[in-house]
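I would like you to help me understand the sequence and structure tokens below and explain how sequence relates to structure.
___
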Amino acid sequence: MVGDALFGITTQEARQLLHAVFATHLPDTCPAGHAAPRKTALEGLTRLMEELPSRGMNLVGGWANQSAHGLYLIIEAPNAHDVNRAVMEFGLGRWNTLNINPVITVEQLRGALERAIIDDPV
């Protein structure tokens, strides 16, 4: 079963996984202070919000840490390859270093840990 390989996540949950996208850039490529990356960032973020659903993905949430020059996104998608392809096509890689990580919710982790205790008591 797919779920068994994913910390006890059910097959239904495994169909749309969460991916944490960490995008960081240096001050000299910061959209806030430079026109070229600003244009790229505005276009890319607009496309991200508008086009993800048509690609079978969902932007769960996004946050920016301006002083750390970082952008944090949670994208629900079938796999990390789809997320990577989308964020690169949207231009986020032109002004950021991207790190994409499959993640689970704390609730899913807690449930998996509880099931592990039942399946393999200490």
The CA atoms of residues 13 and 107 lie 12 Å apart. The chain has five helices and four strands.
